Amino acid sequence: MRIRVFRAVPDLPIRLKLILAFLAVIGVGGIVSLFIGTRIMHRTIITLAQDKVRHDLSAAWMVYNEKLHGIADVVRISAARETIRDALAAGKPAPLAGTLEGVRRQFGLDFLSLTDARGRVVLRARRPENSGEDRSSDPLIGRALRKEDAAATAVLSRAELLEESADLADRARIETIPTPMAEAGAETREDQGLVLEAASPVTDDRGAVLGVLYGAILLNRNFEIVDKVKDIVFEGERYKGRDVGTVTIFQDDLRIATNVQNETGARALGTRVSREVGRTVLGEGRAWVDRAFVVTDWYISAYDPIHDAGGRIVGMLYVGMLEKPYLDRRDAVMGTFTGLAILCALSLLLILSLLTLGITRPLRAIVEATDKIAQGELDHRLRIASRDEVGRLARSFDRMTEDLQKANANLVEWGRTLERRVEERTRELREMQDHLVQSEKLASLGKIAAGVAHEINNPLTSILINTHLMLEQGDRIAPFRENLTLMAEETSRCALIVRRLLDFARQTPPRMERARVNELIERTGRLLEVQAGVHHIKIAMDLDPGLPTIELDRHQIQQVFWNLTINAIEAMPDGGTLTLISRPGATPGTVDVEVADTGVGIPRENLTRLFEPFFTTKSSGTGLGLAVTYGIIERHGGTIEVKSEVGRGSIFTIKFPAVKEGDRDAGHASETDPGRG
Amino acid sequence: MPDTHPKRILVVDDETTVCQSIKLALADEGYSIDLAASGEEALRRGDLSDYDLILADMMMPGTSGLDLLKGIQSKDPAARVVIITGYPTDKAASQSLRMGAVDFLPKPFTPAELRAAVARALAIKARTAGMKD
């Protein structure tokens, strides 16, 4: 599961990841601090409440003891009254009944009685008629008999209460109500009563004990103390219809005086303390300060054991504060705390969201830019101004894009250049190849021609000689003279063809010399005059007088011009204009010569084959003229091109190369060469 | 000064028809004509130096015309040789002349041209012979 979660995380956008991470931190931190905060706050509040309730218990004890001391004071002061002393001393206590009853009523005692020096009751304020009972076994009375003032909490049995007053026994009787968390098995009990009792000796002038005056108030159903404590300590504070503070006096584990209310709102008399509290306080004599379930609610409570004069635990004094207000207060604080925490978390989330937006927006811009650049928008720029890492990244990215754009531009330029170069090279190569093919053809043709010429010339020699020898026979061959003459002529024609072939095949290197090409053109023009006149052809010349001299073989170039011009004249059977032009070439030192006619023109399909040997359109041609011309120009390092349009004429352009630097002074070398005979 | 002895001419050509034709063309000129079908055959002749003129075809299998020219010249430096050839090139012509041939006659030729060339060659011989003498 964890692995799966972590595997899924990388797929999320960075912004979500950051937010999730922060949420996790906030969440964990918040929950932990809430938990700890709650615990601390709870403990603090409860501790505070417990301190308060402990303090309140002390206040309750003060009220309790004040009541006890009050009783003790009444009994002591009364015991010191002369009327009581005198009556006892005289052994006639009966007349004191009114006095005692007056005191009892005045100070709210439940009973006030007098014993003699042996501890035998001589007068009861409530029941003057009931006397004679020995009370010397009562610890307080016993102490008073020993001339001590004594006051303490005490437990009186029903019988003892009955002795004092019948209504006291009834008051003390409290029905035990089954209580959920109380100790089991203590439902039956004697109808005892818990009293605050005081006893003081009555002494004569010499200090001899005449008797004991003792009095008490019954705590059962006596709400004076508990209500007074409630009023003083809690000032009657109420919470949701219930008293916040409660005070109870227990006789043993039974509530005998309390302002804890039961479900019906009545005082919860007769209910019992919870088992746990009972065992601690009653069983072990220790104080209990903690939360405790009292009747119907949880209370923060304090219990102290109540001891009688003999140190026996006879009951408990309890002060409790309703826990609910504290819990509610705690919950309110916790609610505020939690609310604040959530508010903080939300604020953080908002801030975080804005912050991450600040981080992820440029990143997203970069991502989008990447897409755009991938699609070829190389002029796209981010232009993010921030100085952080993302800003640096963006600037690097921009620089990279710029470089890319430049590189791309270079590449495109290179591509174009390359394309151009490839085209140029291809053209050059094609030209070279054409040239080479042409040269190859010429070369192989040359070899064939040489062989053929040799082989054919031998039979031609025999035929020519014998035909002529026959023709020399005069009248003897008269009938055949015409035939023989034809034979001789045709043989000569064969010989001429073979000679042309040989001329072509000979491929003699040109004997170069410095020459003015215009001179050769002019001579050609003069030689053509007769033939041109016959065919009604006009010869036009446009010769640049400022041409540089070039190196050429006069005989060969003369032959070239001758071939071209004769072809031109033959192309114009119905007359026309033969134009001879010379002009400087494209590069310095070079010369262009143009031979143009207004003749029949050359069909496109023939243009490429024009310079091939034996290619001819003329019935009488050898097909070697232009091939020879081509060969000569080639050997001169020049080029020859033809442009033609059927019906309008053709233009042959010869481009002569410039004189090579090293050959400048070699112009006359050819003069000394041995020539052909 | 009339010469009582007819001029002796040796024609060397591997083409027998050419040899025959030349002999026919020169038949009425009063020359004594011998034929050889190869350079080797010509060189084997013991009387090679006795000829007044040798017409040799340049291109022959085995001993070529130029080889023959060299061979003749080693026996008779004053020998007159006319090189004839069916493959008349500038190079061939200049080479033959440089090697000492008195003329160079390209094939095909008419009887008239042949006779003129032979007469011219013999005249050169007469002149050089005269100078020699």
Strands across the major sheet of chain A, in which order? Answer: 2-1-5-4-3
**What profile does the largest beta sheet of chain B have?**
5 strands, parallel
**Individual helix count of chain B:** 5
Helix content of chain B: 40-55%
**Percent helix of chain A:** 40-55%
**Overall 3D geometry of chain A?**
rod-shaped
Query: Biggest sheet of chain A, open or closed, and with what strands and sense?
Result: 5 strands, antiparallel
Structure in words:
The complex is a heterodimer of chains A (677) and B (133). Chain A is rod-shaped. Chain A has 16 helices and 19 strands. In chain A, 51% of the residues lie in helices and 18% in strands. Residues 664-677 of chain A have low confidence and may be disordered. In chain A, a hairpin with a 6-residue loop joins strand 16 and strand 17 (591-596). With 677 residues, chain A is an alpha+beta fold. By secondary structure, chain B is α/β, with parallel strands linked by helices. Chain B contains five helices and five strands. Chain B has helices spanning 16-26, 39-44, 65-75, 90-98, 111-132, and strands at 8-12, 32-36, 53-57, 81-85, 103-106. Chain A binds chain B through residues 450, 453-466, 468-469, 472, 488, 491, 495, 499, 502, 506, 508, 674, 676-677, and chain B through 15, 17-18, 20-22, 24-25, 59, 85-91, 93-94, 97-98, 104, 106-112, 114.
Secondary structure: elements and pairs:
The complex is a heterodimer of chains A (677) and B (133).
Chain A (H helix, E strand, L loop, with lengths): L1 H7 L5 H66 L2 H9 L6 H11 L3 E6 L4 E4 L14 H7 L4 E7 L1 H7 L1 H7 L20 E11 L5 E10 L5 H11 L3 E2 L2 E2 L1 E7 L2 E5 L16 H10 L3 E7 L2 E11 L5 E10 H52 L14 H83 L9 H26 L6 E3 L1 H18 L2 E7 L6 E3 L1 H17 L5 E9 L6 E6 L7 H4 L17 H11 L3 E7 L3 E8 L21
Parallel strand pairs in A: 14-16
Antiparallel strand pairs in A: 1-2, 1-5, 3-4, 4-5, 6-7, 8-9, 8-12, 10-11, 11-12, 13-15, 16-17, 17-19, 18-19
Helix pairs in contact in A: 2-8, 2-10, 6-7, 10-11, 11-12, 12-16, 13-14, 14-16
Chain B lengths: L7 E5 L3 H11 L5 E5 L2 H6 L8 E5 L7 H11 L5 E5 L4 H9 L4 E4 L4 H22 L1
Parallel strand pairs in B: 1-2, 1-3, 3-4, 4-5
